[in-house]
Amino acid sequence: MNFKEELKQKTEMAESVVMKFLPKEEGFARGLAEAVNYSMKSGGKRLRPLFMYESYRMCGGCHEVIEPFMAAIEMIHTHSLIHDDLPAIDGDLYRRGKKTTHAVFGEAMGVLSGDALLNLAYETAIRALFYPGDIQKIAGALKILADKTGILGMLGGQSVDVTNEKDEVWQIKKDMLDYIYLNKTAALIEAALMAGAVLAGASEREVSCMEEIGRKTGLAFQIQDDILDVTSTVEVLGKPVLSDEKNHKTTYVTLLGVESARREVERLTFEAINLLDTLPGEKDFLRELISYLAFREM
Length: 298
Ligand code: GRG
Prior knowledge:
Blueprint: H1 3-20, H2 30-40, H3 47-58, H4 66-85, E1 94-95, E2 98-99, H5 101-105, H6 107-126, H7 135-149, H8 154-166, H9 174-200, H10 204-231, H11 234-237, H12 243-246, H13 252-256, H14 258-276, H15 284-294
Antiparallel strand pairs: 1-2
This protein binds geranylgeranyl diphosphate.
Residues 44-45, 47, 80-81, 83-84, 89, 96, 154-155, 158, 162, 184-185, 222, 225 line the site of geranylgeranyl diphosphate.
């Protein structure tokens, strides 16, 4: 099977795992479950559950305990997208080629469904405690998920982005831009790789190597996002282009130009793969996935 076929098959597997943990649309709160399910079923690459599954598999894991964690990380990611699209932040009406959650269900339900998803992520991950398995590993993975999402992770990174916008600080230096990218984007990719490794019983050295791989891969992913914002089209991306310019954002493209930004993506990807190759386990798919993302078109 070639990489593209394998990616399709594994994405479908991740998709079906995520679907298992969605709420039932019933009762008085049916509207909230509908908004949550709308956003969770609106496509997306399912990269974070895929990264988590591949790390788990590579480190020798082979049990269903990974499944609630795969669903949980996609829920956290989707929460961040719903809130990022709100009028108070980017005010975007399209994502993944579909209307954004607040555009369909209204702003209040957009806020609430994002909140509900963040909570549902932990409700879901906690279910792993009731699977047969090592409680210590599950506790370790829960801690990673919570830490990488919080003030010292994704939410902290986003807060700096939002504060700059509020204060109309348009020109920021590279160290601050890196802080934002490493937290708002890379932290969840680090969490995916680390939690997968911890659940599989990997050593401390292996888990911190996974963290570094996630850091480099996540930074490259966000720089590629900057590049696609100026080089792609709304049809290919399924969301608005030139939005960084519209929002006066400093990006790797505004700091370095498209060509140097591309070289940075390639350098970070090369370093991530070199680190991956220092780890034991079967990693062909993960290696190809990391390099595929450096040239992704959406
Ligand atoms: C401030 C209210 C408020 C909310 C913040 C935490 C947060 C919401 C946003 C996090 C920042 C964020 C949205 C970063 C974007 C990272 C990124 C490049 C997302 C796109 O990921 P893909 O391409 O998306 O994997 P798909 O659609 O494929 O799942």
